[in-house]
Design brief:
Blueprint lengths: L6 H11 L6 H15 L4 E5 L13 E7 L10 E6 L2 E6 L3 E3 L6 H15 L5
Antiparallel strand pairs: 1-2, 1-5, 2-3, 3-4
Helix pairs in contact: 2-3
């Protein structure tokens, strides 16, 4: 967890993402909508941390095809990826976008989610 606050990101989170959210479900829904609206799918991503809930290994590259269903995002934001011959949902926090043609909104939104997690914030 980081203690260093980024005023610009904090403002975006509290004015655009979790504004008027009163409980965990509303905050997770706010994040899901924000990411779904701003991430330009599909895009390439690279695994930046291994997690026991995901089969991805460090530096493994995948194609992110969309947000996972809201029901799968009540604890953490998850995205759908193409992996081998299947579509899986994995935590967004374990991915860093690596496409050469990513738009600024996608980069910013992923960064916002990573920041939220690094700060130790919870729904």
């Amino acid at each position: 967890m980081s203690s260093s606050k980024n005023t610009e990101i904090e403002e975006r989170i509290y004015k655009d993402i979790v504004v008027d959210c009163y409980d965990e479900l509303e905050r997770s829904t706010g994040w899901h909508c924000y990411l779904d609206d701003r991430l330009a799918f599909p895009f390439e991503a690279e695994c930046c941390q291994e997690l026991t809930v995901s089969p991805l290994k460090m530096k493994e590259r995948v194609v992110v095809t969309g947000m996972a269903d809201q029901d799968y995002c009540e604890a953490t934001m998850q995205v759908q990826i193409k992996w081998l011959d299947r579509t899986l949902a994995v935590p967004l926090v374990q991915l860093e976008a690596c496409s050469d043609d990513l738009d600024d909104e996608t980069v910013e939104a992923i960064g916002d989610w990573h920041y939220w997690v690094e700060q130790g914030y919870r729904f």
